[in-house]
């Protein structure tokens, strides 16, 4: 697993629960070091061990932790760059959803060695959207639940999300039902924020 993913998990745990909890989780996972390096790669099992240690230490299901990580990735000030990257996906929440079809390719342009899930979004006959998440590491769909929920809030859209579980091929399926597109005022987003003139 790319170090950037592991580093994001570490930052979520440290920023949310404090440095001592992160230290305990690292020890419980048998890491033997304090910090993940963002540009290194680590065995997938190490990531799974950190998640399992987190579940034990926090007394929460791994799925809930993954969803919280997804929310953190979009809403915490320490990772504002991820929110900005996702907001470039569209002017409204529906455009953002469809932009997930290209997210893997866009991420590979920036970090060719980053293993991103392949995501496919389509609209069902009943007007809901179906997101299929394909990745070798199971559970990433729960992180996407958190990302989608936080992005819906970012756009001011009211949605109902349902993780449908896994298909026979191992893909995760999420149903997205847009209840109201303009439910609330979305968070301010400035395309040119941070540009020095």
From TrEMBL:
Domain Heme NO-binding, first and last residues per copy: 2-158
Lineage: superkingdom: Bacteria
Gene3D superfamilies: H-NOX domain
Pfam families: HNOB
Protein name: Heme NO-binding domain-containing protein
Organism: Celeribacter arenosi
Phylogenetic lineage: Bacteria, Pseudomonadati, Pseudomonadota, Alphaproteobacteria, Rhodobacterales
